[in-house]
Amino acid sequence: MFLPHRLPRPARLGLYALAAAILLVLCLLPTEELPDPGTGDRFEHTAAWFVLTATGYALAPRRRLAIPAFALAYGVLVEVVQAVAPTGRHGDLADLAADALGVAVAVAGYLAVRRLRPA
């Protein structure tokens, strides 16, 4: 069975950096260049930060606090970059709240799985 957290550390960091970079690109593309799945911007932010946090836990499950802390800080960074970059996007506190919700749901899932796993 493939266990991502068993990969060498550089590979895990590279995969997580790739996930974060893809997310940054998607957040900086002008909205007219992105497909509209019809789910709403807040849901998309929640889902994206859930995936980012869950990916972090899959790659480094012992980094219980560092992963959500990074994801939240990354959300702040993305909103600041959106506010200052000339991409037609704008920073939004509601987006940041949606990011935090995605992180919280991933943390709750991680904690639930840990409790269910036999010692």
From TrEMBL:
Signal peptide start-end: none
Keyword Repressor: no
Top-rank taxon: Bacteria
Lipid biosynthesis as UniProt keyword: no
Coiled coil spans: none
Transmembrane residue ranges: 12-31, 43-60, 65-84, 96-113
UniProt keywords, alphabetically: Membrane, Transmembrane, Transmembrane helix
Name recorded for this polypeptide: VanZ family protein
Organism whose genome encodes this protein: Phenylobacterium kunshanense
Lineage of the species this protein comes from: Bacteria, Pseudomonadati, Pseudomonadota, Alphaproteobacteria, Caulobacterales
